[in-house]
Specification:
702 residues; 24 helices; flat; Vacuolar protein sorting-associated protein 51 homolog; Vps51
């Protein structure tokens, strides 16, 4: 062992051996070799030519663990081995910390990859089992495949021949049956007989040199000649109406009858009917006066309704008006759904770098203006039923019931209620029907649309409708405007609450995964803020910008002067250890669980899922409460070591530095973070907090 120690100077051993390493560090320890760079760039040509295979080179391609361990045990002293073991432990912990940091920075990919891998493993097991079964059956199948293939080819060839023969037989059978079908249809269905003869005529002409086909063709011609004679006889009947007369002429043309003769007969028949109708009209004229002067004819009818019975005509017009209003309502609903589809497409469209698409205010203005313009156009169309120059506009129905029941209630009020239900369905429907969830930006936009309807649009629409279709004082009851406004506000409130829940759940999912996937007992001493906390602050900032486009700022509680510099301790401020020292010194360590419960009795209760107000501060406060409450519940389920507690302390202080400015009251953020720190301390096996100055330095550097 002394010889080994004496010869461990610089360059006394091969690369990667204990001697070389100890010499390079002056006997003070091991240094990490530059193996990864060497493996990436490769050795130089001269080095590759001169270097001999060395099984003890830990970074070389010929490394042999057994030879290396034998050499180390024989040549290195015990102190050097222990130092190397400690260095390896530090390197492993550092690598583990780097790997965890990399994992947290890519947690979304890791989560989806974990689920995908789990599903792939299950599918792979099923595939392995199926492959085993297939392998067992392949031998038997391959033995008979050749025979089956030959038999199938022969059968396919014969089947093709048989199919051709059968098709030919069917065609021949159809041709043989043509005369019988023509004879059957010529008397009852002449049009069908003509279609049958037209399909068979070309084939019969092509094969008429064969005796059998010539006989079929002659018989068919005789039948069609009889049909043409019957049609000419029918053409001369006086009882035929114009439609039947036209059908007779068309069928005779299909039978290749002379067109000139048919036109002459058609014109003569039509002229005779026209002369008869003119004679009937002349007979209805008033008779001439014996003195030689004609009596004064009655005035012409003023409207088409004068020729109908009054009650039946009014009922018919009223029904047509109601059906038209229902059609306009469906058209409005379809138009609104189309506008929503355009909005969703605009929100989901990818944005090229440096080019921004339309913002939420522009999309909201376009949607509201399009829907309101379409509603005005529909009201203008419906107003034609009540125009003064229309005869039936003077009917009692169009002066009272039509204006209230059909237009105001059946069209305008029904559309507004349907719009509110449809918008609210994006918050209530996906979880029940299993449909894909709406994007958060769409929920926010629809909430603002319903709120604008409640504030101004509904009253404007109802006023416009009452001006164009004035209701009667004694008419049916109408839906009051405040009732519609209340429905619109309820829809807006539900949409905004759902938006807070969706965004809060997204941030909470990040925090939950970051807590569940970390080893809090074996983690190293914290040196920086975890990447997931930075991502949380970035997401909250993006949500703040998104909400600020559609909602007002809101009112914040007066902030303290040192909100961003407030000390974040693992003990709540009401139970700091030095606070009770002047007046009370316990004889035994006080139970921190008891202190925590006492402190909760006197602290203000935080309602996590309370309804939010229609302003940006309230929305952000709701999202932050859901996120931090999730972090608190996840920490309560973990067991932490000293460094795990300190990491929670660093993360909490970082969140406190940035999140307080988004909340309506900084005490909400501080209270929840205090509970997180207290829970971490309760769950810690060695609760030794980090110095606050060190925490601040890490957070400022992060």
């Amino acid at each position: 062992m002394a010889a080994v120690t004496a010869g461990s100077g610089p360059g006394s051993g091969p690369a990667g051996s204990p001697e070389a390493t100890s010499g390079s560090t002056g006997g003070g320890g091991w240094r990490r070799p530059h193996g990864p760079l060497q493996r990436y760039y490769g050795p130089s040509t001269a080095e590759a030519a001169e270097a001999a295979p060395d099984p003890t080179d830990i970074n070389g391609p010929h490394f042999d663990p057994e030879v290396f361990m034998t050499k180390v045990r024989n040549e290195c002293p015990l102190g050097q081995l222990l130092a190397r073991e400690a260095a390896l432990g530090r390197e492993i912990r550092a690598l583990d910390s780097d790997m965890q940091t990399l994992l947290y920075e890519n947690y979304n990919k890791f989560i989806s990859a974990t689920d995908t891998i789990r599903k792939m493993k299950v599918d792979f097991r099923h595939m392995e089992a199926e492959m085993d079964d297939l392998a067992a059956n392949m031998a038997a199948i391959s033995a008979s495949s050749a025979r089956v293939s030959a038999a199938l080819q022969d059968r396919h060839r014969r089947g093709a021949q048989l199919a051709g023969v059968q098709a030919l037989l069917r065609k021949l059978q159809a041709l043989v049956e043509v005369p019988g079908r023509l004879r059957c249809w010529a008397g009852t269905e002449p049009a069908r007989a003509l279609r049958c003869h037209a399909r068979a005529r070309a084939v019969l002409r092509h094969y008429r040199h064969l005796p059998s086909f010539r006989a079929i063709e002659d018989e068919s011609h005789a039948i069609m000649a009889e049909l043409a004679q019957r049609l000419r006889t029918r053409l001369r009947e006086e009882k035929l109406d114009p439609k039947e007369l036209t059908e007779c002429v068309e069928m005779l043309l299909q039978l290749e009858e002379p067109a000139e003769e048919l036109s002459e007969e058609f014109l003569s028949q039509a002229g005779a009917r026209l002369e008869a109708e003119l004679a009937a009209l002349e007979a209805e004229l008033p008779a001439a006066d014996p003195s030689g002067t004609a009596t004064t004819p009655p005035p012409p009818a003023s409207d088409i309704l004068d020729f109908a019975g009054a009650d039946a005509a009014a009922a018919l017009v009223a029904r047509a008006a109601r059906e038209r209003v229902d059609r306009y309502l469906r058209a409005l609903q379809t138009f609104f759904l189309g506008c929503l589809g355009d909005v969703r497409q605009a929100l989901a469209a990818p944005r090229p770098p440096g080019k921004e698409g339309p913002g939420l205010p522009d999309l909201l203005a376009t949607l509201a203006a399009s829907v309101l313009g379409q509603l005005k156009a529909v009201l203008a169309y419906v107003q034609l039923f009540t125009a003064r120059d229309v005869a039936f506009a003077s009917l009692p129905y169009f002066k009272g019931e039509f204006c209230v029941t059909a237009v105001r209630e059946g069209l305008v009020v029904a559309f507004v209620r349907w719009l509110c239900r449809t918008a609210r369905g994006f918050a209530d429907g996906p979880a029940e029907r299993g449909a894909p969830a709406a994007p958060p930006a769409l929920l926010l936009l629809l909430a603002r649309l319903c709120l604008d309807y409640e504030n101004s649009t509904i009253s404007y629409i109802l006023t416009l409708t009452d001006e164009q279709f004035p209701p009667q004082d004694s008419g049916p009851a109408v839906t009051p405007g405040p009732a519609l406004c209340a429905e619109a506000r309820a829809a807006a409130q539900r949409l905004l609450d759902h938006y807070v829940q969706v965004q809060g759940a997204a941030v909470a999912q990040m925090l939950r995964k970051s807590v569940e996937t970390r080893d809090w007992l074996g983690t190293v001493e914290p040196r920086n803020v975890r990447a997931v906390m930075k991502r949380v602050v970035e997401d909250i900032t993006a949500i703040d910008v998104q909400v600020g486009q559609l909602f007002e700022e809101g009112v914040r509680r007066a902030q303290s002067s040192d909100s961003s510099r407030r000390a974040f301790s693992v003990y709540s401020s009401s139970r700091a250890p030095g606070r009770y020292a002047p007046s009370y010194t316990p004889s035994a360590p006080m139970d921190t669980h008891l202190l925590s419960n006492i402190q909760k009795l006197f602290s203000e209760r935080i309602d996590i899922f309370s309804p939010v107000e229609f302003n940006k501060v309230s929305v952000l406060t709701g999202i932050i409460k859901i996120s931090l409450k999730t972090l608190l519940e996840c920490v309560r389920l973990r067991t932490l070591g000293r460094f795990g507690l300190q990491q929670v302390q660093v993360d909490g202080h970082y969140l406190q530095l940035y999140l307080w400015r988004f909340a309506s009251d900084e005490r909400v953020v501080q209270g929840l973070l205090d509970e997180v720190a207290a829970s971490a301390a309760h769950r810690c096996l060695d609760p030794v907090p980090m110095e606050h100055s060190v925490v601040e330095l890490i957070c400022e550097r992060g």
